Amino acid sequence: MSVELDGVIKRHGRGAAAVVALDGVSARFDAGSFTAIMGPSGSGKSTLLQCAAGLDDVDAGEVVVDGVALGGLREAARARLRRERVGFVFQAFNLLPALTAEQNVALPLRLAGRRVPKRQAREALARVGLADRARHRPSELSGGQQQRVAIARALLIRPKVLFADEPTGALDSASAREALALLRGLREQTIVMVTHDPVAAAHADRVLFLADGRIVGELDDPTPAAVAATMTRLEAPRGR
Description:
Mean pLDDT: 90
Shape: globular
Order of helices and strands: EEEHEEHEHHHEHEHEEH
Oligomer: single chain
């Protein structure tokens, strides 16, 4: 499933106090691709992800997900599209401590009123290498394992696109490598990942760089060194 942004403008606030978070952003994320989004703090990375996922309205331009223009959908239809075709992974694992891994994976669909067979939840855990941890609670899992439970939860519906916002931000380097290798192997999904880490970004097929709400660069087949060099240029004080 592809995701496309066409001339997207997003403002935060109103009137003279309004801040332009995205300033005419156009980008396409092809089916099965893995794209990292990078940029200095305040560049619009998370806003881009939220608009692309239909979590936030745009002020101008259009977002098209799987051929469907989000601007033409009522909120109920947009929520249904997210629930049925889109997965989310965040820096915070958002696992309930009293529930097992299996129960945490099934929880969002249960809250939506859908019955989730144990087999389905355990299959999702097996996809992330945690088939033997289904009955463990978060306190019995490492940080990396908890993030893999969160990824399994996102994969439960077999989404067409997976949006990840700093998915390795709370992990040590070894756990981060495991999570990134897992994401890298998810070729059934289109993955859009916001990150501040050049090593994480280098796991993607492509890196888009934002500054001041605009796309200012792109790298295909990125390396950590090339990503870091680009970020250094973007973060350098102007006028140098």
